[in-house]
Amino acid sequence: MSFVSKKKLEPFDWVNYSLLALISFVCVFPFLYVFSVSFTDPQVYVPLKFYVFPEKWSLSAYKYILSTNSFANALKSTVFITTIGTVMNVIVSFSLAYALTKKTMPGRGIMMGAVIFTLVFSAGIVPNYLLIKELGLLNSYWALIWPALTNAWSLIVIKSFLESLPSELEDSAKIDGCSDLGVFLRIVIPLSMPAIAAFTLFFAVAHWNTYFNALIYISDSKKWTLQVLVKTLVIDSDSNGVGQAGSGGDDRMVPQETIRMASIMLSMAPILVIYPFLQKHFAKGVMLGSVKG
Fold this sequence. Notes:
Main location: membrane
InterPro entries: MetI-like, MetI-like_sf
Mean pLDDT: 81
Membrane topology: Multi-pass membrane protein
CATH class: Mainly Alpha
Keywords: Cell membrane, Membrane, Transmembrane, Transmembrane helix, Transport
Helix content: 55-70%
Protein name: Carbohydrate ABC transporter permease
């Protein structure tokens, strides 16, 4: 015998569900088109035709892109920036946020004021470019890593989370002879794993999607990130960015449209694969520290 009551849907519910279904379709529609075209066999591909599913499946576009030096270089650049940048982001953000939770730290108010100031005001594109140029970081991966070591929003959220941790744990660790660094590494970090997982995802996605800074700071095509390469393929009139280092005339056999769509799929794939595994940590980490009591 089932005790679960079945609620009858009201007209208002039907309208809500219909709108949500329509919005979902609008969101999925472009992705479905990109997916279908990227897997369509070049022999049956027809320009300006919408494909729900490929008429004939083929990996030609993917094989072509993965065989070129341009895509390989862009992938290496993006993986390096994402890996190193994310690790440094987590270390700097959590270390600084932990320091800002200590009311006895000299200059804490000034540092917190500086953090909030950057949340409201920014230097702008030209001063940032001149700073990167004077530091000699142009055409360097570090131009995309050093200026983005942390940000005000992340610091404030992480600080709020760390302040929600029981202070008694730190006090007991210090009584047992643990140093401040030991407390941070042995007590705070293990308790902060959900938040670390959430912000690791935040930072990794931000670095993986790096486009504008890479566009203005890196002019060497061999150091382009994936997003810059995809932009060159999809938007620029000269869409042979991948083919320049390709294998002879193979790009004539594979339509440029399928190459574009395949490059978009490849640039999205890693985040789409990783996100479902981190989703539970992501949601938990965002909520932790948001309500204190």
